[in-house]
Amino acid sequence: MAFLRSILFFVLLLHGFFSPIFAGSVGEEEFSEELLLKPLPDRKVLANFHFETRAPPTDIHGRHHRLFPKAIYQLVQKFRVREMELSFTQGRWNYEQWGGFDPVSSSNAKPPGVELWAAFDVPPDQVDATWKNLTHTLSGLFCASINFLESSTAYSAPDWAFRPFSGSLRYGALPREAVCTENLTPWLKLLPCRDKAGLAAIMDRPSIYRGFYHSQRLRLISTEFGSHEGVDSGIVLEQTLTVVLQPVAQRNSMTYSSGSVLQPTWSISSIFGRKVGGSCVLAKHSTVFLELDRGLVAELKKLQREDGKFEVYDAVSEGSWSNPGFELSVTPDRVIKEVNSLHSESSSILFEFSLEKYSYSEPFDVWFRWKLPVVWSCLQAPFHVSRFLMGSGNERGSIAISLKSTELSEGFHVSDAIGDGCRLRVDVFQIVPWYVKVYFHTLQVFVDGQPQIVTDVVEKIRVSPSEDKVSPGVLEMVLKFPCSVRSAALTTEFDKGFLHIDEYPPDANQGFDIPSAVISFPDFQASVHFLEENSSNNSPILSKFQESNPVLSYTEVLLVPLTTPDFSMPYNVITITCTVFALYFGSLLNVLRRRVGEEERFLKSKEIAPCRCHKDWSAIQIVRQAKR
Amino acid sequence: MAESNSSKVKPRPIVRIGIFLVSHSLLFSVLCCTAGLLALLLLPVLAKNTYISENALMPGSANPMLSTHDITEANRLVKDIIASNLSLAEAGIEIPRLVARYMSDSGAEVYYHKFHPQLNQFHPLRFFSSSFNPGIIQDNSSCASHGINSVGIIRAPRGDGKEAIILVTPYNSARIELNEALSLGLVYSLFSLLTRVNWLAKDIIWLAADSQYGEHASVAAWLRDYHTPVFSGLGKLDADTCLESNAIYALKENPNTRRISDVFRRAGTMAAALVIKVVNRREETDKDTLSIYAEASNGQMPNLDLINIVNYLAVHRQGLRVKVEKLYSLLDSVWLKIFGEILELLGTVARKLNPQWKFGIPAADYIEGTATLASSMYYQALGVPTGPHGAFRDYQVDAITLEISPKVSLNNEVRRSEFLLRSGRLIEGVIRSVNNLLEKFHQSFFLYFLTAPGKFVSVGVYMIAFALLVAPLPIVAAALYSDANKWGSSSTRDSPDPCLTSTDEPANTRKSWKWLHAAKVVFIVHLWGAIVSLLPYLICQLPESTPTTSMLTWVLLSIFCLRILYWILGSPYLNISVPQPQNREWAILKSVMIAAALIGLGLMSIINFATAQIGAMLMVPMCLMAHPLKLITRGGRLRAFTLTACNLLLGFIGFPPAALLLLKSTMEGFSSINGSDFWSWVESLWAWNSATYLYLGLVHLPCWVLCMHILLHPV
Fold it and tell me: Which residues of B touch A262 (CB under 8 A)?
């Protein structure tokens, strides 16, 4: 026994001694926290928190984790999630002002409310059941009514237009879900330092919920279940919080000769109300980035040229960083430039600030002060997409998606001077609830104001018509437009359906939502490549930027007013209907039953012997009395 | 009665009531008509106080944020507008640009909306449908004649963009007045405030509507493009070429500011719309005044809650005096005053008897209420919107026009700022209330008459008057028909001719089908009515026609048509040639006419209740009284005289042009009457697609003609 125990002890000791070495060699749990700040053209600031937790594959590492949240690990194991994305969003991403082409907007601009999609690694017949269980689990995990996505009327199975997972992908959206701190707190609990230390500590609730856009996102990629070829990287949990905040502008900011106003100065402490008190000790990377996008860099260069100061590009003086256009209070640890093949003249710049040397006693804060008014615009998606309802009344209407080309696609077709052969691909994915009965055959396509034959433009289409009270209507389309297109519009007509009285949700008079459509542009990849010295020590957010994903835009959520019954009046309705029916059937029966001739004969006979009848009646009464 | 009936078949009680009513139809109709008119007069007494029905609105629960700083901004815009108006001849382009620049500077999304004014033409085939193809209309409009609306949209910071609140300021860009500039300034101050607030849940759209082609036209054009845009580029191309030929005004913006495009932008479903106007009143009052206009096309009203919040905030928060339109001529009417005093007396007596009975109102209130009710009813009956808000109602959007006038002249700058602050805070409060709204307006009433800004008569109450007025019609029709049949049968029975008794059966059948002839006459006249109401379409095509000549043409053509129809289908008095004692032809005609009138009124009450109400007031007595003049003279002298006088008077009032002239003369005095008034009135009716026009042509006029037939019946 003692021998056995000593062996056990030895084994344990060995394990304890060697496992860190093993883990280090095959991959270890990793956590990184990063914050990307970016000034936006409309005097606002974008802040994008990016937390990434990686767990090595189970068969190497085992089931016990130091950093990776257990809830998520169990969820992945139980539902065999291959990929999943859950986002809670409040407000709308302003594609025109804040850009639609860079990786931040492509992956973090989400439709209002909750959006969830997941791909599973289960047999096709179990996907729906797994999805239903997953929605309930997430609902409990994030304090949200994601469980409403359980109903088959709420989710759909896109085939190819959304993501390339055929069959195993489910997509659902709840546009009306309100997002607040109750959803943020469980999300923060997944971080190893929660919001007690590190970057998450600056998430002052009032400041981040005061913003113009607030999107909290959770993305899971798992290669646990061997259907993937190649490297087995375990589970990656990516948590991002994107907020657009408005720094407080000085009232008496001076106006310049050109009439434009200087952008407001901002700092981390002024927009969040807190300073960064050092990094989370568990984090491998703890970095703050400041991004100046292409348009801004180009404008700044132009300013320099106007000033005539060549090569006085950046000046480091007394710990601050200065430039003719702006000034930074802290010297960045690194300046990373984008490698850009397409637009060689302008490439975005990243300033990197490492948080390792800061602590609570010496918190990190950087302010950004403009010296000159700069007007620039962010990089736009090839088309500006908007969707709206047409028509009025409670009977029918139509949904229109309008695409307006932006500078980018104009530049694209100029550079690609092929002529007629050049075609732009646009993918459309739209879910419509069943009570909005879309007639897909009424699809009309207009290009530059000219009606087109649908088959000329639509290259591929998949429609699954809605089934009443069972499934929503799904439209997936691949459109090919000529590159010279300036504007395009798609319209489909619909009829408004009727719901049963107990199917109306609360506040039914507000109308019903049609979730956002997803428009993607597979010809364009939203990726930014950065010039880096050592790629081994790559920061997760930068490697994320380098992944090539198609440019995505979400359209607006639509509100369809449907006919609603007067809920307060069922009693009146019942009474009136009953009265009408009683009157109708009563008189009908009366008319059918009556024989006028017989009645007259009867009355005549009564006329002849009225007293006899009377006598009979009294006789009966007498008999009755006698019986008593 | 039971004794006498016991020998016969004893009918069921409901039938007995029917027979009783028919046999006493005269008494019944007199009673019902008087009761109906009385009920109408009692409506101001029965009016209830308005209350805010939707709890989510919470008006006035937040302190207004509009400050004097915002008002100085407003004054800056007003000064700029006035300056640009003085300096530039082409203010038509300059002011929309100026407004758009201000909108853009406050941080909103801005665009220009160019539109072509649409001619109001009578299209008989698409009377109720508002769908049409603008391409056809625009073909001969020149490039110069288009208006430019500047539209600014504030996206609610954390909103989902599903709903929007619309603010409209109509102004004449060609010649802007101070009051219009002030309304622009007022809304601008609010708009710039709303770009900064953090409580917005719905988007805000400010439409600065260029009203040089009419206030309604510009708003309607914008709404049309919002709801039913045309993608196939006919209209677009036209506008684009115009843009190039005109000037490059829109694109020639400061390169440093944001470029203002022509791309139409939207902001979701409209929750409510407010049209804001500032007027410079001549007379001085003790308080700033707010007038509310709510009537949209075909008597549709916005939800009462919208009026309620405006009224509540204006009275209880900003201390404005709220007015709704009233018929001022009624205020001095003597008989109304007497009636009001009687009611007041009755009220006090009742209160003495039982303090719980509180139905009396002061005579002055009664007169005010009646005047307001009359105007409310008149404008609903007319079916013509009373302002640009009417365009919104066509798309089921609740909208009202707020007309704010200061107590002193607008030229006084100090008082002007105070006035702007007060009215700005009012509008801010309304927007904030509507912004709180989760559902669309549905809680409160849609069918109502206002008797004061804070009092209303709901549909359940005002229906009584109409029901009472219409009730005698079926009874009298039945009475006349049964009477005529009885007369007929008695005449055949009394006839000494023995051969008639042998052919009793066919005579009976002929008699029972006698109404067919009357029905034919009624049908012909109604057909004529339809033709008459289509005639203006042809008359409009005539070149160089003044209203008077058009009117004359219309009248002549109508008479001509009637003659032709009679010539083709036979005269109404055809059967008269057969000499028959006690000819009751006219009675059957009258009964069929009454039945047709009843159906017409019933249908109209569904489409536009106020029209049916007023129509019933004019038509029911006329129909009931109609009696051949020849027969009247056979009766007693006094009775004959009163009957003739009543018939003639009612016949005169019942004629639509005469009724209009009478109304105008009481409202504006006899001097303003013009022969072409009726034409222009009718023109406005069809231009606005008012169902009242259909009612006049298809129900009222034929009924009047039939009454005239009966009056002139050669018995």
Answer: none
